[in-house]
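[#protein-structures] MJ: dropping Glycine--tRNA ligase here for a structure pass
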Amino acid sequence: MQHENTMEKIISLAKRRGFIFQGSEIYGGLAGTWDYGPLGVALKNNIKKLWWKRFVEARSDMYGMDAAILMRQEVWQASGHVSGFSDPLVECTKCKRRFRADHLEDKKKCPECGGLLGDEKQFNMMFKTHVGAAEDASAISYLRPETAQGMFVNFKNVLDTFHPKLPFGMAQIGKAFRNEIAPRDFLFRTREFEQMEIEYFVTPGEWKEKFEHFRTEVWNFTKDIGLSQEKIHELEVSDADRAHYSKRTIDFEFDYPFGKKELYGLAYRTDFDLKSHSEKSGQDLSYFDETTKERFLAHCIEPSFGVDRTFLAVLTDAYHEDELGLKPSSNEDGSPEAGEKRVYLKLSPEVAPIKVAVFPLLKNKPTLVEKAREVFEVFRKQGGAVAFDDNGNIGKRYRRQDEIGTVLTITIDFQTLEDNSVTVRDRDTMKQIRVSGENLERRVSEVLAGVKIFDSF
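AK: finished. structure tokens for Glycine--tRNA ligase:
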């Protein structure tokens, strides 16, 4: 019950502060779809930028891709999705609701109305559509259920264009779609989602070494985005539970409020995909090694990251209620007083949608507002994520910024007009200190970069 209450609070905060909205909400919503609001987009983009920086920009062996969502049906036939991408489905004979059989404790009784459940059958999760005006079998296509195949079918194009030497990889961030029988747990299981995936091609003899390399890199990425390391666990997937294409898989699980669930995956796909597409298409997708003069099919290591699951992990990990049971007061100085718990998002500066907020102490004092605007413009022109906030009293502004994870707030007060110093407040500790105007940019930058902690000002 406590975990359910936590998720309810997080979902409420996400909507109230403009992170996540229900898809098609004004029409009653569409299950399994969510819309990212202004702060949600900013947080999600920060996650994707950090991923792209680590896995593409910082490497010389990775090639970026952005393949089409719609692909020929032969792609999904060759990959095994048409014949095997399904979940077990049961339907209630009374209320006609459908459920995933493997998510039910009692596979004979409907969890909604108590009616009798029908026989289990397989349900293909791909969204089927038709390309063009015709609606015959030749026009069938699918909304891709994963981004991986777009890289496999472009393997030869990258070889012919850039002539890379093994090992090398292809990386892509993009949307994928799965017609989930029972979407659930907020952003965790949805029908439309975004993936960050790598297909890293190696010689058959070096897969173990590269597998361990990416195993370490996955952990490094969790540190980049500020996830609590003790909440992440590795699970060696058994032979019976691995995907048909995988010879070895490690799942990286995260302690969500609703339980320990898969966050990322690392799979050794062997040469399954290139072999299947080579046979189905009739194209030669082999690699010729100039050194050994051998031709063979490259093997593949696949680190797979869900953007939405990462977003959810970051959001739930950052959610804090002040242990002191304090809240910002309505006093002008924003000092805490006893009352309801203060809620704040302890986001890493790397992912926080707003890093700095600038306040005039009073919005009806033109001199304070003018000076606050001046400071705001300084940080805005640096390209940083900065907000200007003069709505409500200073205590309410602190509370609002805490709830969206703003790292530092800068208040322009009457002393600022005298000596050009400002009040800087730390989100996590609520400590406030005076900083001189000439040192403000440098010291704020140091805190955001993690060079100095707040107490060092």
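MJ: nice. The chain has 13 helices and 26 strands.
AK: one more thing. The longest helix spans residues 38-57.
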